[in-house]
Fold this protein.
Amino acid sequence: ALGDDLGLVRAWRLIGDVHWNHARYGAADDALAHAIEHARRAGAKHEEADALGKYMGSGVYGPAPVEEIERRCDELLPISSGTGYEAPALTALAWVRAMKGRFAEASVLLGRSRAIYEDLGLRLRLAFVAETAGGIELLAGDAIAAEREFRTCLAALAEMGEQGIQSTVAAALAHALIEQGRFDEAEELVSASELTGAEDDVSTQVLGRSARARIEAGRGRQAEAERLAREAVALSEATDDLNMRGDTLVDLGEVLSAGGVSYEAATATQPVSTEVAAAATAVGAADTKPLRIGI
């Protein structure tokens, strides 16, 4: 029945949100696919487009291959043109292009997404685009530009009183500052993230620990740095966020290297899967450090 399908859309969306918060994006994918199916049965175009938009993000963060993410974007764009729901697809495509090293294309796609949200007055969505742009700038190796985007996002979230996401963005901004050698400022942001971040917000917990590990290593406090870096790796390994898992391994390698342990010895202690290694080298560049944030 129509009512049953609409109820199931909402139920599967809630299930997807639970998995999303724990960075289990493969499971979120499955839940969102069910939500999309029931929305189509009900003829609920709004709910379908909304679920498809979230489906973009779970694809980018999780284990879905690039070709699958592009297929999803191709599916969403035609049915959402002029509604505003094409913006998540544009943002997802921007991340895919960036992962391929096509940063100019990524910038254009993000610009289109921003313009849509600005026209619609969707300030929270605009903040999400700025967060994505910050991650892409880190991926491109421009920590100063990443800082600018993350600060734009934080300011918008603070103005709206949106505290849940601020902790994640604060930790991401800390990484951008660490890249610039600004450890004191980064530490303030990590402390703020730790104060407000939920215990079950895995992404925030991982970003915060890995940032603090890098700060401790930069100050020569090796034992504490290694402990925190290993905690970040352990937390990320419980997820299927391949970028995050790759990032934490790179961070651990850097921490151990700062303590005089070779990179080979560091990676030998971790069972790095083929999928994580592929995510860490997706750009095809030697410097994998910026692989940290998604949409």
About this structure: The radius of gyration is 19 Å. Residues 220 and 259 are 8 Å apart (CA to CA). The mean pLDDT is 87.
